[in-house]
Amino acid sequence: MDIIGIDLGGTNLRAGVVKEGVLQPVVSQPLKAHGNHAEVVKQIFGVIDKIIDSDVKAIGIGVPGLVDPVSRILYNVVNIPAINETDLRGILEQRYRLPVKIENDANCFALGEFHFGAARSYKSVVGLTIGTGLGAGIITNGKLFTGKHGGAGEFGMISYLGKNIEYYVSGRFFEEVYKTAGEVVYKRAQEGDIEAGYMYEDFGRHLGEVIKLVLYVLDTECIVIGGALKAAFPFYGRSMWETVRGFPFQRAVASLKIVASVLPGSNILGAAALHLLSVKNGAVNN
Fold first, then answer.
1. A Pfam family this protein belongs to (predicted)?
2. Per-residue model confidence as pLDDT tens digits over 176-215
């Protein structure tokens, strides 16, 4: 069946139809993230209305916040405050008369890679989205795991070196520690700048410590890195692996796969995949 997948980001709203596992052309527009509730909902309606037709049988949406596993009410949506504590799923179902599933955007990223991308050969996967913040989606034994309150995988909030992990493993790291924008560091690294290379090596070591934490907690098979910093993987991958190889359980390291995502629209595909059941011996838990 055709499914509309929506990626509701803090700055952009993107949507596309997934037809037989293939993402059709994507509609994208800047999001009025600090608009009122009616404005944000109107924008979501607008992108859906551009691509919906009679073949569409369901809608999936990823949001930059937490989703209550039972009520599906949104909470902790820091970057889009107008939709905090709202039943966005119910609003969409009432308008379009289609089944709607809603989930955290990092969880959607992990599902996209699990169903369509680099993690298709694995049953236990962690998707790390590294951009302005750090998000994580967890798939274990073929099922999406969100925890009792929908907040499983928020590794970025864990205390680390006097701050929290997100301070060191996100775009904030370059701004806070090196007082420069991540985009500038990336451009300099592409030009062969040695200092930028050192910054990425430092970043890679912190990311390696996060991956060791993930291994202690989940002993996963595959980690896929997405978000804005996935493009810089060649610059920090070596120091990341040097750190990961210090993990005491070497069998876990030897079989671990860590890759940067190359799947276009993984969040949108993952949002659509919320409707795919009984795939790879499991179903998503909402």
1. ROK
2. 999 999 999 999 999 999 999 999 999 999 999 999 999 9
CA 183 vs. chain centroid, Å, equals 20
Residue 147 is classified by DSSP as -
SS3 for 272? Answer: helix
Taking alpha carbons only, the member of 1, 118, 8 closest to residue 64 is: 8
Tell me the pLDDT tens digit for each residue of 229-286.
999 999 999 999 999 999 999 999 999 999 999 999 999 999 999 998 534 434 444 4
Residues 6+ apart with CB under 8 A from 208: 239, 240, 241, 242, 243, 244, 246
**Phi, psi dihedrals of residue 75, rounded to the nearest 5°:** -150, 165
Residue ranges and CATH numbers for the domains of the chain are 2-108+266-273 (3.30.420.40), 120-260 (3.30.420.40)
- 275 contact partners, CB below 8 Å, separation of at least 6: 1, 3, 58, 60, 99, 101
Residue among 284, 272, 279, 277 at smallest CA distance from 100: 272
Q: Which amino acid, 86?
A: T
Task: Determine the Cα–Cα distance for residues 107 and 125; give it in Å rounded to an integer.
Answer: 11
With residue 162 as reference, give the H or E element that holds it.
Answer: none
- Single pTM value for the model: 0.94
Show the tokens assigned to 184. 């500038």
What are the Cα distances from residue 102, in Å, to 19, 73, 139, 230, 286? Answer: 19, 9, 16, 25, 8
